[in-house]
């Protein structure tokens, strides 16, 4: 099995692709398509955040005895993403074009910055630190269904 960086990096790409699909539907004011594709994006994001929060971060925190460090910052940013996605879901129900695009732009910036920190700093560090446990962790993350 590959590295944590490979595994969660491709999860990031999947979320990005699904985000773009919703964006295209909203731009065309295809609200039925937007709601459907938003559900798929939201499901991929929920699974991704759960993989990090329920499997990866606890493993790191257990090794470092540090639940207040970088993983705490990541958890706070996840909470912000969840709130934005709630607003976006509501905007697809209300068929509110400008509200959707406004919240989506904030989420996109937040995701880009967040994913960059994970892919450039945290995941490479986790790959080094968790080393032999990495394969088990990826197995446990794979087991989290969408
Ligand atoms: Fe994250
Ligand atoms: Fe992530």
Description:
With 146 residues, this protein is mostly helical. It has a single domain, classed as Four Helix Bundle (Hemerythrin (Met), subunit A). It contains five helices and no strands. The protein starts with a helix and ends with a helix. The mean pLDDT is 94. The structure holds fe (ii) ion (2 copies).
How far from one another are the termini?
20 Å
- Averaged pLDDT, please? 94
Unreliably modeled segments: none
In the CATH hierarchy, what is the superfamily?
A: Oxygen-evolving enhancer protein 3 (PsbQ), four-helix up-down bundle
Bound molecules: fe (ii) ion
Question: Structural class, please?
Answer: mainly alpha
Q: How many strands, which pairing sense, and closed or not: the largest β-sheet?
A: none
Number of domains: 1
The shape is elongated
Beta-strand portion reads under 5%
Provide the descriptors you would attach to this structure in a database record.
146 residues, Four Helix Bundle (Hemerythrin (Met), subunit A), elongated, binds fe (ii) ion
Concise structural overview:
By secondary structure, this protein is mostly helical. The chain contains 5 helices and no strands. The chain has one domain: Four Helix Bundle (Hemerythrin (Met), subunit A).
Write the layout of secondary structure elements.
Elements: H1 4-27, H2 31-64, H3 70-94, H4 97-130, H5 134-142
Bound molecules: fe (ii) ion (2 copies).
The site of one fe (ii) ion has 6 residues, from α1, α2 and α4.
């Amino acid at each position: 099995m590959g590295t944590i960086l490979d595994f969660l990096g491709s999860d990031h790409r999947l979320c990005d692709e699904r985000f773009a699909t919703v964006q295209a539907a909203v731009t065309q004011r295809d609200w039925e398509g937007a709601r459907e594709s938003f559900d798929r994006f939201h499901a991929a994001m929920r699974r991704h955040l759960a993989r990090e929060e329920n499997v990866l971060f606890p493993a790191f925190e257990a090794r470092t005895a540090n639940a207040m460090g970088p993983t705490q910052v990541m958890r706070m940013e996840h909470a912000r993403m969840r709130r934005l996605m709630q607003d976006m879901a509501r905007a697809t129900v209300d068929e509110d074009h400008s509200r959707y695009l406004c919240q989506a732009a904030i989420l996109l910036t937040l995701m880009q910055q967040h994913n960059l920190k994970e892919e450039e700093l945290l995941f490479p560090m986790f790959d080094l630190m968790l080393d032999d446990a990495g394969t088990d962790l990826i197995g446990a993350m794979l087991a989290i269904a969408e």
